[in-house]
Design goal:
Low-confidence stretches of chain B: none
Number of helices of chain A: 16
Order of helices and strands of chain A: EHEHEHEHHHHEEEHEHHHHEHHHHEE
CATH class of one domain in chain A: Alpha Beta
Helix content of chain B: under 10%
Oligomer: heterodimer
Strand order of the largest sheet of chain B: 8-7-6-9-10
Largest sheet of chain A: 9 strands, mixed
Number of strands of chain A: 11
Strand content of chain B: 25-35%
Number of strands of chain B: 10
Largest sheet of chain B: 5 strands, antiparallel
Shape of chain A: globular
Radius of gyration of chain A: 20 Å
Structural class of chain B: mainly beta
Mean pLDDT of chain B: 93
Mean pLDDT of chain A: 96
Distance between the termini of chain B: 53 Å
Number of domains of chain B: 1
CATH superfamily of one domain in chain A: Thiolase/Chalcone synthase
Radius of gyration of chain B: 21 Å
Structural class of chain A: alpha/beta
Largest interface: A-B, 45 and 43 residues
Helix content of chain A: 25-40%
Number of helices of chain B: 2
CATH architecture of one domain in chain A: 3-Layer(aba) Sandwich
Chain lengths: ~425, ~160
């Protein structure tokens, strides 16, 4: 019988660009010190192992920042692992740490993540990030991630009659949700009209549809059940975790997850209101959807006994690198049946006072996206929502989801290449 | 990653102290077992690999079938000149290497009987006239313009589209 795993603490540094006041190791020490300050019962000796989360070493021209942070904070000779999986790196690191504790190999783990992206201008930064796509076929055309997501978004608009107003509403929601967060960099009180009038980066995506390059760091502390009960009165359990993969090139999607679902098991149905014949009518996931998300959610929901995600989950932190990818994710994580997302957004479903608040933190668009820290930031806010003390990290309680018992956290890489879904509950 | 620093780095600011580091590298890149695809542009061909056992055609070509892992390096097929636009985007921002080309259009092209989509530039068309589902034809760079990269081929509306 594998062990239960709890989140017992965490910390956040200020997300900003640039953070010239601190070098990477100093940036990482900031949230780690905050986590220890918030947990008087926790000492450095309690930490059995670390997992470092970062995506690129291009930005700091330093190839092993995992180790430099670890010894800077005085955790040697304890074991340390580095996890890298593009945008999903943060939750992938938590997912990895969860396995160690579940297996009984560690009792307390420190997961720390960071990224600094301000050492080069944004055009070169986008080129560095685009090197995570296929460099022979896609990137060499002048491709970069906003362009790839624009291709996928255009296909979603075409197939499901969603439109730029739907994606703009997500930008409005996330930027407004970040307004009360001192840790967030990109909060703004904008309107749908502002988004639609903003500069086009790659049609149909406008600049307000995109997250911005950010420097930042975050950490989460996980513990086994026995240890969690000694460290805190209010552990939040990771009751489910899952990870899925799909073809790296968007053009290869038909031979990725889709191929397995054509020849073997059908694409799993994770929403009781979803009609499997609707999926069969379109090529699924193709480029308009994320098959890896469906697979990650299937694993996580099975472990957490979730059969109706919309009813059983009270809030979600989703990987909104683009408004379009948040829109697509509502369907693939099983909140809304395919093709019904536009209507759900119009009804206010993902807003703080809606049916299932998505990104009450402000998400990547509102808070920022320092890649290796992002999934950890999302987990931090979901954790405090469930603890009931989210307003402690905000200037007001406008984004508190009262009485939430269960949250989903989602982290997403590439064009849907790696996707992690975690279920957190009280 | 090797860091090459100039002998006298430029100072950007004194407080906080920020200096310039230069990192400029030349890489010797190989296209591996499927370099025939890139050589094909000079012959006016878009080439794909085919797995006879799985009855699947791949573009970009794969040297190994992802399903049965058969060696496909001897099984090349030429794609038809005409294809269909699966989806597209007009880019107004890019990495510094491609800034001079802005704005440009990227699309995914599909062919009947081919499993995958191929990303390419779309040229000779106004952004407002590009539509999902339109028919495209393939064009190739003249010898003096050849870069031996995927920029050596592109798509433009087929004659059927231009007659509409």
């Amino acid at each position: 019988m594998s062990k239960r795993v709890a989140i017992v603490g965490g910390g956040l540094g200020k997300f900003d660009k640039p953070r010239e006041d601190k070098r990477v190791r100093e940036l990482v020490a900031e949230p780690v010190k905050m986590a220890f300050d918030l947990m008087p019962n926790l000492s450095k000796d309690d930490i059995d192992m670390g997992v470092a989360s970062y995506f690129a070493t291009h930005f700091d021209q330093e190839h092993n920042p995992a180790s430099s942070c670890w010894d800077y904070m005085g955790f040697t000779p304890k074991p340390l692992l580095h996890i890298e999986g593009g945008g999903a790196t943060g939750c992938l690191a938590i997912w990895a740490a969860w396995h160690y504790i579940k297996a009984g190999l560690a009792d307390v783990m420190l997961v720390y993540g960071f990224e600094t992206q301000s050492t080069v201008d944004s055009s070169l930064a986008n080129e560095f990030i685009a090197a995570a796509s296929d460099t022979d076929f896609d990137y060499s055309l002048g491709g970069f991630y906003t362009g790839y997501y624009a291709l996928m978004c255009a296909r979603h608009y075409h197939l499901y009659k969603t439109n730029p107003v739907h994606t703009a509403m997500i930008a409005v929601k996330n930027k407004r949700n970040a307004l009360n967060k001192p840790f967030a960099e990109f909060g703004a009180n904008i309107t749908v009209e502002d988004v639609l009038k903003s500069r086009t980066i790659a049609s149909p995506l406008k600049i307000f549809d995109c997250c911005m390059l950010t420097d930042g760091a975050a950490c989460i502390i996980l513990a086994s059940e026995e240890k969690a009960k000694k460290l805190t009165d209010s552990p939040i359990w990771i009751s489910g975790g899952g990870m899925g993969t799909d073809a790296m090139r968007p053009g290869d999607r038909p031979i990725g997850a889709a191929a397995a679902w054509q020849t073997g098991a059908k694409a799993p149905i994770i929403n009781p209101e979803e009609d499997s014949s609707a999926l069969a009518k379109v090529s699924y996931p193709d480029v308009q959807s994320f098959g890896a998300c469906r697979e990650a959610a299937r694993q996580a929901y099975r472990l957490a006994n979730i059969t109706n995600p919309l009813k059983q989950i009270q809030l979600a932190e989703l990987h909104d690198a683009y408004t379009s990818s948040e829109m697509q994710t509502y369907e693939d994580i099983g909140f809304i049946p395919h093709g019904k997302t536009g209507k759900w957004i119009e009804e206010g479903g993902p807003f703080v006072d809606g049916e299932l608040p998505c990104n009450p933190s402000g998400g990547l668009i509102g808070v920022g996206h320092p890649v290796g820290a992002t999934g950890i930031m999302s987990t931090f806010f979901a954790y405090h929502q469930l603890l009931g003390d989210e307003p402690k990290f905000c200037t007001n309680s406008s984004t508190e989801v009262q009485g939430a018992q269960r949250a989903a956290v989602h982290s997403h890489a590439g064009t849907g290449t790696y996707i992690v879904v975690l279920v957190l509950e009280k | 990653m090797i860091v090459i620093m100039g002998e006298q780095p430029d100072v950007l600011s004194y407080d906080p102290l920020r200096i310039v580091r230069i990192h400029d590298q030349t890489f010797h890149h190989s296209y591996g077992k499927i370099d025939k695809f890139f050589k094909g542009f000079a012959e006016g061909k878009l080439l794909a690999t085919k797995c006879e056992k799985c009855k699947k055609v791949y573009v970009p070509p794969r040297a190994d079938c992802p399903f049965c892992l058969a060696d496909l390096t001897e099984n090349w097929v030429e794609l038809p000149k005409e294809c269909e636009l699966h989806t597209f985007s007009v880019l107004y921002f890019a990495g510094p290497t491609f800034f001079r080309d802005l704005p440009f259009i990227l699309g995914l092209a599909k062919w009947p009987g081919v499993e995958t989509y191929l990303m390419g530039r779309i040229k000779d068309v106004k952004p407002d006239d590009v539509k999902i589902g339109m028919k495209l034809r393939t064009r190739f760079a003249e010898p003096h313009r050849r870069s031996w990269t995927v920029l050596d081929f592109w798509f433009e509306p087929s004659e059927k589209e231009t007659k509409k």
